[in-house]
Amino acid sequence: MVSKAEEIASRRLRAILAGIATGETIPDSAEFRDALSGLEWFLPTVLAEVHSEWTGESLDEIYPHVAQKTGEGEAEILGLCCLMSDQTLTPIHLRLQLSIATDEVSWLELQLGEKGRAGMVRIPYSSSPSIHKRLHALGVNASTIEWVYKVTFGERKE
Predict the structure, then answer these.
(1) pLDDT in the model for residue 150
(2) Handedness of CA 37, 124, 138, 116 (dihedral sign)
(3) How far apart are CA 78 and CA 111, in angstroms?
(4) Domain count within the chain
(5) Residue 85: helix, strand or coil by DSSP?
(6) In angstroms, what CA-CA distances link 152 with 21, 73, 95, 104, 143?
(7) Mean pLDDT, the chain, integer
(8) Are 63 and 131 in contact (CB under 8 A)?
(9) What angle do CA 85, 58, 10 make, to 5 degrees?
């Protein structure tokens, strides 16, 4: 059964992606913020299915540095997310494909959290200048990050 959060994120993303060409940046808008809000509720449930420590955890915000349409009904988001439990930021990389027929995610590849010496890198939310520096350091290449969590589900349709 599709959660309300997944349904909202999918519906909003579908509308946004329909209006832009493949390769274009997803513009900041109220609809995109609604889609991100849905993802903030949906993604922790996906992580909790594989990683028990995510049970009860949630995301407070997603700050995209890169957000683009990568194909028909497909998007990629790379940026930072805020962990609700301790209000710290960590990198997030998400690629997803929406179902053709329903408001749900049919394929998802999620990477979250950068490995550090003492576990996952957590940047205090209050360090605003560091947030911007970290976003720019991410650049557009998620492969340079050693990820703590990696989850994939579904099958990507070509």
Answers:
(1) 96
(2) negative
(3) 9
(4) 1
(5) coil
(6) 25, 17, 9, 15, 16
(7) 90
(8) yes
(9) 160
All residues at 6 or more sequence positions from 52 whose CB lies less than 8 Å from its CB, including other chains: none
**Cα 138 from Cα 152, distance rounded (Å):** 21
134 close to 123: Cβ distance less than 8 angstroms? yes
What are 33-91's pLDDT values in tens digits? 999 999 999 999 999 999 999 998 999 999 998 999 999 999 999 999 999 998 899 99
Q: Is 12 helix (H, G, I), strand (E, B) or coil?
A: helix
Instruction: List residues bridging with 111 in a β-sheet.
Output: 93, 150
Within 10 angstroms of residue 82's Cβ, the number of other Cβ atoms is: 21
At 46 the three-state DSSP class reads: helix
Beta strands in the chain (DSSP E): 59-71, 74-83, 88-98, 105-116, 119-120, 123-124, 147-154
Distance CA 59, CA 81 (A): 7
**Domain residue limits at 24:** 4-154
pLDDT at site 13: 97
Contacts of residue 90, defined as CB under 8 A and 6 or more positions apart, other chains included, come to 80, 81, 83, 112, 113, 114, 120, 121, 122, 123
Backbone angles phi, psi at 96, to 5 degrees: -145, 160
